[in-house]
Write a structure and sequence with these properties.
By secondary structure, this protein is α/β, with parallel strands linked by helices. Helices cover about 40% and strands about 25% of the residues. Helix 6 (about 170-185) links the parallel strand 7 (about 160) and strand 8 (about 190-195). It is globular and about 55 Å long. Bound molecules: adenosine-5'-triphosphate (ATP).
Amino acid sequence: MITVNNVYKSFADLKVLNDISITFEAGKTNLIIGQSGSGKTVLLKSIIGLHEVDSGSIFYNDRNFTAMNLKGRKEIRKEMGMVFQGGALFDSMTVEENVLFPLNMFSNSSEKEKKERANFCLNRVNIQNSNHLFPAEISGGMQKRVAIARAIALNPKYLFCDEPNSGLDPVTAILIDNLILEITKEYNITTIINTHDMNSVMEIGEKIIFISKGNKVWEGTKDGIFDTDNEDLNNFVFASELYKKIKKIS
Ligand SMILES: Nc1ncnc2c1ncn2[C@@H]1O[C@H](COP(=O)(O)OP(=O)(O)OP(=O)(O)O)[C@@H](O)[C@H]1O
């Protein structure tokens, strides 16, 4: 579980996060949604410690991450997996080397064990016979799967995904979403996903948090999202013609 308590964050005069409090539960896909510029990435980066918050606190289970020194944070970082926008694989490394990277950084296992673990993770995301290929030689969907394999290499307790299916066709996007959902359940991970994508919300959103102009204005389940009176959320959800039609039908 990750708990965000009364977090504020500004850049000079720009107030980006305003009194944000959220509980992200383990074994669930927690989706942060909101318009471009609403503060989703700043929130995610604050949670993982890439931004220092101005005030408030972030707890990993009962551990106060905000109050920790670098050494303490490093221990918690070992428990985090990350899938960034665009996959963010290292272009100069092969598929296998990409997945070995966190193992080489943080694990004391033998070379043989690390290789076995990398191959287990690649198998888990259905990547076979591609260990020697470079990211430029595989499709966007495969790149995302390799990024997920790399993110789970160290058996994370916490998984962070920033727009994990950006740039993918709708069918591949749903496969990636479901892979993240399955892994979350299988390993009881606290998973936080930033997304604009209403298809992801409907496919895998177990807990949904809607951020607007740096404020948390709504949280609930995907079923509740169509019944809300919140005008900002309605504008976001029904921005596409498809969802306007769904609203009319339901
Ligand atoms: N390092 C930074 N310095 C100054 N301003 C920043 C910084 N990072 C983000 N911002 C500003 O904070 C606001 C929120 O940005 P953020 O990237 O969190 O939005 P977002 O909701 O993730 O948008 P998108 O969905 O387009 O990625 C924006 O106005 C952005 O310009």
